[in-house]
Write a structure and sequence with these properties.
By secondary structure, this protein is mainly β. The chain is built from four helices and 16 strands. The strands form three sheets. Strands 4-5-9-8-7-6 form a six-stranded antiparallel beta sheet. It has a five-stranded mixed β-barrel with strand order 10-11-13-16-15. A three-stranded antiparallel beta sheet has the order 2-1-3. A hairpin with a 5-residue loop joins strand 11 and strand 12.
Amino acid sequence: MNFTAKKTIKMAIVGGAVAATALLSACGGNGVAGNGSPVRNAAETAAAEQVPEGVGQGAASGGTGATSNGDVNCSKNGGQVGAPGRQKMDLIAVAATDGTTPGCTEAFNVIAEYYQKLPQAEGPGERVLDVQGRWTCARQADAAGAQGAVTCGVPNDSLQLETRPSGGTGQAPDKQVRKFPNSTHSVQFTGYDADVRMARFQLTVPGKGGDARPVDGKTYRLPLQPGGKVFSAATLCPSESGTVTIDDAGLGNGPCGQAQLIQQLQEGNPVRAQISVNGDDKIATVKEIYHP
């Protein structure tokens, strides 16, 4: 991609160690204290410099790259990113519901270190812990049409960034690739990934004796909509009296909460539920499916 370069993202190789020095203006959003571009010393200045593999060239120069939903497309001025041999994508600083957005300088530093640590990644999702000392990144293996798309988050914090395909234009797409927008599904939750704030689940249909039977055996992940509704039937948020609270369809209608759902999933308790997914591919409503 061709950009007027006022600054560049560079790598300084010193004593065999690679240190990412992202000299980018923050493409909008709030920077994080203590995570600015490192100051290069005399030894680094004398060392050979090169652009990090997988990180696009170009510098942030004018414009914020902000999209209509508040996300910031850092690649608008800094170039696309991607692991070696994979599709290049836009780097997006995601706007959280509390208004915080990681700065583009930190975003490029995080994604560059993630790509460098891929050989030591965990599992099929290529999960890497302790990126830049506090971030966790993982590939969105279930993102249709987004081969190698990555989501990074800070545990117990609202900061998040991700990569998104853009069709090679360098601009953020109008809409991110969605898996289940505006739909309702019966699922069995299998866990919760706190680092990227996503619930894991399998699609199910009723089996013999009321047991759940997986539809395709695949595990999917979606985030919970902030302020979304959760309703218990019996075990998700059990009442003191042990009363079952369901509607005519056998779905929970006892007010519960996302915190209780997350706790159940983090403790390894499978939860069967009907979920409603909004247009942003976030789980808006969870109703526990009652089974005696």
